[in-house]
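To: structure desk
From: M.T.
Subject: fold request, one chain
Message: Could you run this one when you get a chance? Sequence is below, nothing fancy, just the single chain.
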Amino acid sequence: MTSLYLLRHGETQWNVEKRFQGSKDSPLTEVGKRQAQSHGTLLQNVGVTNIICSTLGRVRETIRIIQAVWQGTVIYDERLRELGAGAWEGLTFIEVADQYPSLMSRSKRWRFDFKPPGGESNRELRSRLEPLLAEVITTPYDLAIVTHGAVLRMLLELLLDMPFQENPTFTIGNETVFRIDNLRDATQCFHYLDGRLPIPGLPINT
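Reply: Done. Structure tokens follow.
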């Protein structure tokens, strides 16, 4: 593989409302649909012929829009589902802080071993992603992964050999496509914003 492209589903209604989604879904907004179309155009232009993606509804909706402008093979993989938020799914960040104040203070924004009631920890997420990445790296063609915010963050940290960050210094926007080059050698990272020319490095969280 020469390049691996990583992207998030288009913006959803719950993204706008700042709700935990996890395994639950909400529809793409009009902005999210435009983002998905932009992603499809980019993947078509750079010659990606295969996508591996999450099985959740918001990714499936994104893929349907991508396929209107992109031609290739799509494989769905359960391991790319979003980090489970358990009882917090569907609640806003403010509602979680009100209803689970002690847990929220301990979580420090998804500490590595923390998990909400009925949810999943980042350690568990990493455990299901590591075997998938081992398979992906041996793929003989350029590939795109379409998934979710927490999953993308973990994939980037694994690929770029970065320590887990409780407060990441980079952003995972719905409009961003990441490109990882030279996976077997000196790994390089670029990102595209709304399909524009690639920018070296990760988008910085300001």
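Reply (cont.): The two ends are 32 Å apart (CA to CA). Let me know if you need anything else for the meeting.
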